[in-house]
Amino acid sequence: MVYNLSRWFETKPFQQQIIILAVVLDPIGFAAGYLLAPSLGVEPLMGGVYGLLVASLPMSWLVMRQSS
């Protein structure tokens, strides 16, 4: 199933790939950062911001891969 999803993702144009990654990963990153922040001694909102930063790494990787 992962192979089918990967193949489906690769068939999309680059612009749509960026949007798909943002729609899927940004909410997950924010929620994970928000929920994990208190256990790490950080304010929940700042944890959400850190989660968004971490969630943007796959998108940056995709852009770098596309540019080469």
Would you mind describing this structure in some detail?
With 68 residues, the protein is an all-alpha fold. The protein has one domain. 82% of the residues lie in helices and 0% in strands. It has helices at residues 2-11, 14-36, 44-55, 57-67.
Q: How many strands, what sense, and barrel or not for the largest sheet?
A: none
Coarse shape: elongated
User: Percent of residues in helical segments?
Assistant: over 70%
Q: pLDDT under 50 segments (min length 5)?
A: none
Q: Please give the alpha-carbon distance between the first and last residues.
A: 28 Å
Query: Helix-strand pattern, N to C?
Result: HHHH
- Number of H- or I-type helical stretches: 4
How many extended strands?
0
Indicate how many domains the architecture comprises.
1
Report mean pLDDT, rounded to a whole number. 93
Structural class of the helices, strands and pairings? mainly alpha
> DSSP strand (E) fraction?
under 5%
Rg result: 14 Å
